[in-house]
Amino acid sequence: MDELTALSNITLKNLPSGVRVPHYDRSVLSAGIVHIGLGNFHRAHQAWYLHRLMDAGLCHDWAIIGAGVRANDAQQRERLIAQDCLTTLIELDPSGMSAEISGSMIDFLPVEEGNQALIERMAQPDIRIVSLTVTEGGYYIDPSSGGFDASHPDIVYDSQNPTHPKTAFGAMVAALKLRREKELGPFTGLSCDNLQGNGTILKRAVVGLAGMSDPDLATWIEAQCTFPNSMVDCIVPATGPKELELVHSFGIDDKAPVTHENFRQWVIEDDFCAGRPDWDKVGATLSGDVHEYEAMKLRILNGGHQMIAVPADLLGIDTISGAMAHDGIRAMLQKIIKQEVAPNVKSVPNMAPLDYLQLIERRFSNPEIVDTTRRVAFDGSSRQTGFIVPSIRDALAGGQPIDGLALMSALWARYCLAQREDGSAIAPNDPYWDELQIVAHAAQNNPIAWLKMRKYYGDLSENAVFSSAFAHWYEVLARDGVEAALSAYNSDKVPAV
């Protein structure tokens, strides 16, 4: 292999000619956004939209300042600061790979206990948007009520230590307090996580936390700040040895490259109290009705991801494209979506639910995207609750079948026994793994014990139709295994138990 070029501002001109580099002068960029949660998804999605705007000669005063509130974010900071916050984006398409250097991020704040650097930076007048990708499980949602969990130890701590908070929301509250005191005005809080009504959920967390220590500040935030809802979509695998090899194949030494599919979508509610970049000029959709886009994506794509990742990992299939190559898993996905999910999902402009199903089937099947079933199956306690359970409730209310969704729930219970069909162990894969394992073992003697976890299923254990179907499929899985259960569901041959 030829010698690699270390990624930095001064080496951009030395990169191979086939690598797309920024067309703008990064030295004149100024900040407008603080983004909390600098994982791969943000850099392949929101940061890319802004990068392309800058390439068009626009929005050079909206550059991103990166931030993190977890201890391991410090390692990401070291990697990105060392390469001037540049990122190599590698598009993986069956027709061929391409590489592009994104330069819309210009700094990464120190990651420190108490989050003082983050608070002070968000309190500066040039910051007009604070955006977040902190995962679905990072919003302190009470699973049983769906509301803000004010009793969580992190939230209690922040309410008692508002000047030295632990959480992103505590830091936002502290920064808004400083802005109010200095009469600098509010900023927009923009969630970019996979939650229906993510802006509403972010507002509830920020206002709710502020109200625990400073009710007047909470009132001001509610009146002055905006929290637009948004829907984000792009399949972005984690970075590992394969991704590092790929970036090296382009002649680039990038310690934090990102691979992604040849598809992006961003639908945003146009509700920004302090201005925004012109994202719509590079393909984002500004809409007054984000909810329908959210519902389609969360129910069909995110829900569909769970439907294939869980049985695939149980069968020892490592990748999402590998799961789609399994006839039984693919047939289950199609049948559940067509019969049990799509009837309760509305069309959006230029896309009907079943057309969207065909789109995600193509995307999931892309063999160039090495997205692991383990990564997608992670955090079922949030993802099953957010992506599967709402479809169960809608199907029950609408009189649609629920057998496939019941099978999906039974597969998750089976997954939490932490053993694959071949006897190999499934390493912990959920923030509540120990608790889930205990209940999964109890369900071996009484399947309904799984549904009695009210913080995930609410009152579904009391619904005779769903609980009966769940118990049936749980027992089929226990007796005959995953392959047989998939075959029975797909063939409409319901085996006796």
Automatic annotation (TrEMBL):
Domain of life: Bacteria
Keywords tagged on the record: Oxidoreductase
Domain Mannitol dehydrogenase C-terminal as annotated: residue spans: 289-476
Family matches, as Gene3D superfamilies: N-(1-d-carboxylethyl)-l-norvaline Dehydrogenase, domain 2 (1.10.1040.10), NAD(P)-binding Rossmann-like Domain (3.40.50.720)
Classification lineage: Bacteria, Pseudomonadati, Pseudomonadota, Alphaproteobacteria, Hyphomicrobiales
EC number of this enzyme: 1.1.1.-
Classification via SUPFAM superfamilies: 6-phosphogluconate dehydrogenase C-terminal domain-like, NAD(P)-binding Rossmann-fold domains
Group of enzyme by EC: oxidoreductase
Pfam families noted in UniProt: Mannitol_dh, Mannitol_dh_C
Annotated ranges, domain Mannitol dehydrogenase N-terminal: 32-281
Protein name: Mannitol dehydrogenase family protein
PANTHER family: MANNITOL DEHYDROGENASE 2-RELATED, MANNITOL DEHYDROGENASE DSF1-RELATED
Gene Ontology terms for molecular function: oxidoreductase activity
